[in-house]
Structures are given as C-alpha cells and as structure tokens.
Write a structure and sequence with these properties.
The protein is an alpha+beta fold. It folds into 6 domains: 2-39; 53-134 and 192-350, Penicillin-binding protein 2a (Domain 2), CATH 3.90.1310; 135-191, no CATH class; 431-464, no CATH class; 478-598 and 762-919, DD-peptidase/beta-lactamase superfamily (Beta-lactamase, 3-Layer(aba) Sandwich), CATH 3.40.710; 609-752, no CATH class. It contains 33 helices and 31 strands. Helix 24 (608-629) runs antiparallel to helix 28 (726-748). It is a single-pass membrane protein. Residues 388-583, 756-899 form the Penicillin-binding protein transpeptidase domain. Belongs to the transpeptidase family.
C-alpha cells in the first residue's frame, strides 16, 4: 500500500514538473512575441525596411573564338552596367533619381570632346520611337516588315485597348468582335509616331514639365521596368558598358540615387573588327521567351544573333554564377553572404586562317575598287562592282580556310545589343533617292533603278545596292558561268560523246539542226578547238555542241533508264548532283547542303523537274492575267508584233484571301479553280495529249457555277459557225495555246541544255556551294562536309571535340578524263595573258606552284547594261595540279569578266602556301633530332 502511494506521488511530481516547464516555455514565447511586436516593433520594422537578401547573378565570360593558329577572333572583357532595382520605396523618388542619373551620364559623355572615345556613359537605347522629328525606326528590311513592327509596338503598349475603350463603350480590344477589332486596327494604323508618343507619356504618367527628350527617356526606362516586372525581375539595366571612371563615380553617388547600383558584366570584343564578321556573326538581345527556361536573363543577357556566335551558342555561353547579398531598402548591396562561382564558356577553334582571311578580304576590296575606276568602268562596265565573295577550302578535309564576303559589318557595333541609329541606318536601311542624287543620277534614272512599289515606297527592284548583313559566300545565288564547263567537259568524256581529240570549229556562233542560232560577239571566234583548248579559251560553241550530243544520246528511253534519268535534259544534272551541286528534286534523300555550320542557301543545276515547275508557274501567270483582263494578244517572238488578239468575258482564277490571310473563296470554288490550274500543268508537261477544249470548258463552267456573286450579271457568248464563243476562245486560244506552244515548248526545248552546258540559265550556286563541288571533283569524287569548326576546348584546355573529315558521298571518277580536264585548266591559267601574270611567280618550297583554274562570266539579265548591272565575274583555281589540296572560288557582282578575279585568287593561294611553308619550317626547327 505504501509503495502504491509512493508511485502515485512520484507520478504527480513528474507531471507537475512537466506542466511547470511547459508553462515557463509558453510564457517565454509570449514574452518574446510581446517584445518583438510591441516593445521592439519600431526597431525591427526599420531593420526589415532597410535590409534584406537578394540573389544577384555573377556574369560569366563567353568562350573565345580562335582561328586555326590560336589567334583570337572573339573574346570577352569585364565591363560595368548601371542597374535600377524597382521597389515601392524607390518608386517614390523615381523621376528625381532618373533626372540625376541622366545629368550625370550626360556630363561624363560630354568629356569626350576633350578626350575622344574615353568615356562611355550613354543610356541603353531600345525604343524605336524617336523624336525631333517623330518617327518609328525598326530593324526591318522592307516596308511590310516595318509596318508590322509598328503595329506590334503600338499594341504591346495597349494603344489598341485605349482606342477600343474610347470607341466601344469602355470595352477592351480583346472583348470586341472580329469586325470591330479590324476597325480598331485601321484606326491604330493611322496613329502617327507623335500620337503614339503622347499616348505613352500619358500611359506612364510622365510629368509634362520635362522637355521631350527627358520625357522619352523616362518612358523608355519605365517601359523597360514594366517588361522586367512582367518577367518576374525587379532589376533593370539602364546603361551598359560604362567606362571605369563613370562606374566609379556612380558607385560614389549610389547613396544619393535610390535603387541605382553598378553590376560587373562581360562584353564581347572582336579585336579584328570587320574581319570575318560574316562568319563570326554578332551578339543580339533576346526576344524569344523560351530562352528564359534555359537560364537566360532576358533583361541583361545577350545571345549569338548569327554566324558562329549563334551556331555554337550552347558551347560558348558558359554557366553564370550567383551571389547572395544583403541589400538595403533601396536595393543597394551592403555585403556578400554567399557565392556560387561561374563556369566560363568553352573555346571554339575554327579552321579559318586569320592571315589568309585578311588577305582574301583585302585583295577582294582592292580589286573591286580598281574595277570602279573610270577607265575600267568604260572598258568593262563594272561601275557597280561593290560586292563579292571568295571561299578557300581544303580539298582533302573539307575545312574552310577563308571565307570573305564584302561589304561586311563590324560586330563590335552589336556588342551591347543596342545598335545606334547611325549604325542601324547603315546596316538595315537605304535611302534610295538620296543614293541616286549623291551619285549624280537624273530623276528618270532614280525612278528606273529604284521604282516606287504598290506601297508607295522605293525598292531595290534590280538588287543594285550591296547588303552588309548578307553573307554573299553562303547566302547569295548566281549562275555559275563558264566555270561549269569543267563539269560539262567531264560528262562529255565519261558519256563517250567526246574524247580528248574531238574538235569543233568555233566561229563565234553556235547553230544546231533545228534552226537554233546564237552569236557570241564578245568572245569572237577561236577556230578549231579540242577540249583542252576549249577550256583555255572558254569556247561556248564547243560545250554547247557537247550538250547537244548528250541530249541526242539520251533521247532514247532505254538509255535514260540505264542512267536513271527521266528526261534527256537531265544528263548533266545527274553528274552535277553527285558532285554536290544541287540535288535531284525527286529524291527526298538528296543533300544539296554543303554541311557548313552557319546558315546557307543552296541552288541547283538545271534539270527537267525544276524547269517544268518554273515554266508552269510562268505560263499560269500569263494565262490568269489574260483571263482576268478579258483580252489576250499573241505576240511574235522575233518581230515583237501582235499577230492575233482575242477578247472574251473575264474569268478569275486567282485565289482570294481576307486581310487576316484566311481564304474567302468557298471550298468548292477553290477546288474548281485548282482543277483548271492542274489541267494547265498537264498541258505544259505532256503537250497535245491534253488538247481537249471540251474538257477545259467543263472545268471553266464549274468555276462560274461556284462563284455566283461574281458572274450573276455576266453572259458568256455561245459558239457560232463562224466564231468561237467566250469559253471556246478561252479554252482553245488562250489556255491551250499558251500552255502548249509557250509552256510545253519551253519546258522541253533542247535550248535549255545549251544554256546549262555553259553555266547559264537555271543553274545557280553560292560561292561556297561551287567551291565544295569543285573540291569533290578534284578529290576523285569524294564529297566531304564543308566545315568551319576545328576543335571545342574546355576551360582547362582539354579538347572535348575534334572535327574530323566527314564523307557525305562518293562518286567514282575516271582519272584519265580528269587529267585531260586538268591540262585545259592549267592552260587557262598560264596561257591567258590577262591571268598568267598573277600566278606564274607563286612558289612553294622554292618550286613553282602549278595551278589550274577556270574563269566564268554569268549574265545577270539580258538588259543588264540598261540598269547599270553587269555579268557576275567568277574564277575557280586549285593547286597543286598534280595533287590538289586547296580550291579557291571568287565571285564579283557586276565584274563582267572572270579574269578580273585573278588578283584575289592569287593572293589567297599565295598566303595559304606561304603560311603552310612557314608552319612546316617551324615544325622542322623544333622537332627533336633523331639519335644516331
């Protein structure tokens, strides 16, 4: 019993102790809460208002871009950005703070008058709405793009919502009906730059006491802050790439500027300025939100906008670090609590040789300047020789040694992501009227060269002016001219229609058995020529004759089947596709691309499929235009006189869409029009097999039936004994006549082969594409991927990727035939008086460097001289002849004769082999002697 009482007392005692302790803890918590919330309330509120933590980015150095010898093409350096941290506290003094910042930056910038280019203290400029005068400036290359950008800009600021609310009882734009939205869009389109500016000043509540320039700056920065807030950021860049003295001054003034601080960033530097800019590309602001998911800060980060910078963005960008910092209520950093170190981007090493690249650009520029001298202009008509490209490629590896495109740009202008107005106008905008007047043109000539389009804007209709942002080496297509004769000669040999001793009497004219005749006044006659001589003198009759023999051989269906072609027009194309000059349009696995890492366009060699499509669309356009107008005039091709004229009730075969791009034709009407067009295609492809006017009439009646609104008051006359009715006239004298005698004849004429055999007409290529094709030819038919990348190197100097030669395809070539071609190309270099002087003294290791080549002159258009244009001047050279290692292809727009490119090719080849010789000598000098 006593034990039970003792256990009970012990239990009660422990329970009471626990309760007592709990009460003490609770009292302590209550007391602490009372202290924090009542006694120390003011202290901690002030502390919280003045100090908090913020994670800030630590910028990372973008990886370097090097040439094949380790020379720097692009690198990064530390710079400073002025940033503003948005908060309720800072908003109270926003205008006053910004005015102080504006004045401080202007004061620093003005010091450049005494010490030019020392200070960089300008606000970042990213608002396309300018004042004095009020105007929109968008980075668009045409009027349509500018208008679209203007409408998007206005809508981004909600100007359309304001107009909707004012005109539709307070309804927002998104709540309106489709027709009402179109009406608002029409109103928005009429709003001028000044109207938009006034709206923005009101929208952002900018005080009217400030001058216009200050108002614009405040609007620009407030808009930037708004965009960052939308993206979840409260830090906005105000000015980038500040000079050291300006950033130090701002650091000192930070206490007086609530929300203002300076961050360390990395700036892209291109030490060689314009050199290789079309390859390297440039840096650009980020406009696509998808990059935010990849860790980019859309406010401060830049991204590769083109070229290598874009192609290897993933490798170059690196990984940013971070600091956890303590900041006060104005967002000014007070101390760093923790740091995550950044990881630098990888180094991208290219196959380019900087010295060869410099020589390529320098010689190309000097040659074009020479061609624009008065004497040359009078002799060659080369006054517009303002652009060109040259590509040097290693035949054994596919590596691009140099790739020059002129004119080009300075990527340093884009390094901050903000292009100045002056540079924007230089790179993207052309004042055609001013250009013409500056060159002393008459108004008549200005109107002819730069006609006014339907939008009331002048346009460069004849592609007269050079474009600095276009890579002419990879993104411009031209007829290949007589350089193509190398391929035609080989095809002729391989197909057995010619031998090395086959001759043609070149009288400066070519005639066939079908009454075709063309004269070559500029070239004159060359007498009796074989293939070797024909390549030396570039005999058009010889290669046209070769083309005719090839066509005749493959008129036989069995022969075509054995070669795997659908038309005798495709013989030369079949071989060219194997070399990489285009691809069979009927082969889904064809690879016309060279494989280069930067953007390229690809042309194609003349072939029957592309020809038929081109002729069909041209024929269709002629027919549709005539039917819409209700009249067709048959014109004699030789006399240019009207031989027959037909009138009839118009029929509209055009597809129609609304302002929104949606089709307004019913499905039945669309299909009826398509049926007529498909029938026209069959006539173009098969000719008289489809001479069935009654069938065409049925198709036309379906169009009329399904478009009742258009034809409700229209009567189509019936046929009579002595006259066709409207539909018969349309089907017989327009649709069939044009499709059969213009379309079918053009799509199947042997004349196309004559043009193709000398590199004219439909055969087009970029300089890179042509260089790659010749590299394949001189590499015994082994086609290698063209590449600019050599190695990718990590921050520790380890090679993490090495680009090896990559075979795309192989084509068995006959060495005997290639050797015959080589002899002709050697004679072309050393037996042409205007070419030989540039190449005869080139040496390698003390011996004469034997070089082969082929010139080319490709017509721009038949009336080119009337519009101050001229032929494309081409030159292909390769060396050494006995074992080809490098091929160089150059084109100069409006250069006329291919021989004018000789200084360029010679300079590039000389630089390449001198560099190679120097490397070999250095390697030999540093090699460890072998012990005896």
């Amino acid at each position: 019993m006593e034990k039970e009482k003792k256990r009970l007392r012990d239990k009660i005692t422990r329970h009471m102790v626990l309760v007592f302790i709990s009460i003490l803890i609770l009292l302590g918590v209550i007391a602490r809460a009372f202290y924090l919330q009542v006694i120390a309330h003011d202290y901690y509120v002030e502390y919280a208002n003045n100090k908090s933590h913020r994670v800030t980015e630590v910028s990372v150095a973008r990886g370097d871009i090097l040439d094949v010898n380790g020379n720097t093409l692009a690198t990064s350096e530390q710079t400073y950005n002025l940033v503003y941290t948005d908060s309720k506290e800072n908003q109270k003094t926003f205008n006053d703070t910004m005015i102080k910042v504006f004045k401080l930056l202007e004061s620093q910038q003005s010091k450049n008058a005494a010490e030019p280019n020392k200070y960089n203290a300008k606000l970042d400029e990213d608002m396309p709405l300018k004042i004095n005068p009020f105007v929109f400036e968008f980075n668009s290359v045409d009027e349509k793009g500018r208008k679209a950008s203007e409408m998007r800009f206005k809508k981004d600021f909600g100007f359309n919502d304001r107009l909707a609310e004012e005109n539709y009882n307070g309804l927002a734009y998104g709540k309106l009906k489709e027709e009402e939205q179109k009406e608002v869009d029409a109103m928005l389109e009429t709003k001028t730059a000044e109207d938009t500016f006034n709206y923005l000043v009101d929208f952002y509540e900018v005080p009217a006491v400030y001058d216009l320039e200050t108002q614009r700056k405040l609007v620009m920065i407030k808009n930037r802050i708004k965009i960052q807030a939308f993206l979840g950021n409260n830090v906005t860049v105000i000015a980038s790439n500040l000079d050291r003295e300006t950033q130090f001054l701002l650091q000192q003034k930070a206490v007086e500027l609530p929300g203002i601080s300076v961050e360390i960033r990395q700036k892209r530097i291109y030490p060689n300025n314009n050199t290789a800019s079309s390859i390297l590309g440039y840096m650009s602001k980020i406009t696509d939100k998808k990059y935010e998911e990849r860790g980019y800060n859309l406010s401060t980060d830049l991204i590769g906008g083109s070229g290598i910078e874009s192609a290897f963005e993933k490798e170059l960008r690196g990984t940013k670090g971070a600091n956890v910092v303590e900041v006060n209520s104005s967002g000014v950093p007070l101390s760093t609590i923790a740091t995550l170190e950044p990881v630098a981007g990888k180094t991208v090493k290219l196959t380019l040789d900087l010295e060869v690249q410099k020589k390529a650009e320098e010689s190309l520029q000097k040659t074009m300047e020479f061609l624009r001298e008065p004497k040359q202009v009078n002799e060659l008509g080369s006054g517009n020789a303002t652009r060109g490209a040259t590509v040097a490629m290693n035949i054994k590896t596919g590596a691009v040694v140099s790739m020059a495109s002129l004119p080009n740009f300075n990527p340093n202008d884009f390094a901050t992501g903000n292009l100045s107005n002056e540079k924007y106008n230089e790179y993207y905008k052309s004042d055609y009227e001013a250009y013409g007047k500056a060159n002393g043109w008459s108004q008549e000539k200005i109107d002819k060269i730069f006609p006014v389009n339907e939008s009331g804007e002048r346009e460069d209709f004849y592609d007269f002016l050079p474009k600095k942002m276009l890579n002419y080496a990879t993104q411009s297509l031209q007829p290949t001219g007589s350089t193509f004769k190398v391929f035609t000669g080989y095809v002729g040999l391989h197909e057995g229609v010619i031998t090395g001793s086959t001759t043609v009497n070149d009288l400066g004219v070519f005639e066939d058995d079908d009454d075709f005749s063309t004269e070559f006044k500029d070239e004159g006659s060359n007498g009796i020529v074989n293939l070797r001589k024909a390549l030396q003198v570039s005999s058009n009759p010889f290669f046209m004759q070769t083309g005719q023999w090839l066509f005749k051989k493959y008129e036989d269906e069995a022969a075509r089947n054995s070669l795997g072609i659908r038309s005798p027009l495709d013989v030369i194309a079949k071989y060219s596709w194997n070399l990489g000059l285009g691809a069979d349009p009927n082969n889904p696995n064809g690879r016309p691309e060279t494989g280069i890492e930067i953007p390229e366009v690809t042309g194609n060699v003349f072939n029957s499929t592309d020809l038929e499509n081109s002729v069909y669309y041209s024929t269709l356009d002629t027919i549709m235009s005539a039917l819409k107008n209700g009249v067709f005039n048959r014109i004699n091709a030789k006399t240019k006189m009207i031989t027959n004229s037909y009138t009839f009730q118009p029929i509209d075969l055009y597809y129609h869409t609304g302002n929104d791009g949606e089709a307004t034709d019913s499905l039945e009407l669309h299909n009826a029009k398509k049926a007529v067009k498909d029938y026209i295609r069959q006539i173009v492809l098969h000719g008289s097999e489809y001479n069935k006017p009654d069938e065409i009439n049925k198709l036309l009646k379906e169009v009329i039936k399904n478009d009742p609104e258009r034809y409700k008051n229209v009567t189509f006359k019936e046929s009579t004994l002595d006259n066709y009715g409207d539909l018969d006239t349309i089907s017989r004298s327009v649709i069939y006549d044009v499709a059969r005698f213009d379309g079918y004849n053009a799509a199947h004429s042997i004349y196309n082969v004559y043009n193709a055999s000398i590199g004219q007409g439909y055969t087009v290529a970029t300089p890179l594409q042509l260089a790659s094709s010749f590299a394949t030819f001189w590499n015994d038919g082994t086609r290698l991927k063209a590449h600019l990348l050599d190695e990718i190197i990590d921050e520790d100097g380890n090679v993490v990727f090495k680009q090896e030669p990559e075979v795309i395809s192989k084509f068995d070539m006959n060495k005997e035939y290639v050797d015959i071609i080589k002899e002709g190309t050697k004679d072309m270099i050393y037996k042409q008086e205007s070419v030989a002087p540039y190449f005869k003294d080139l040496t390698y290791k003390g011996q004469q460097l034997m070089i082969g080549g082929k010139t080319g002159s490709a017509t721009f258009r038949e009336d080119q001289l009337k519009i101050d244009r001229n032929a494309f001047a081409w030159l292909m050279t390769y060396a050494p002849i006995e074992d080809p290692e490098i091929v160089v292809v150059t084109v100069i727009f409006d250069g006329h004769w291919g021989r004018v490119c000789s200084p360029v090719n010679a300079a590039v080849m000389d630089a390449y082999f001198k560099g190679k010789e120097a490397k070999e000598a250095q390697a030999a000098a540093t090699a460890t002697p072998v012990a005896k």
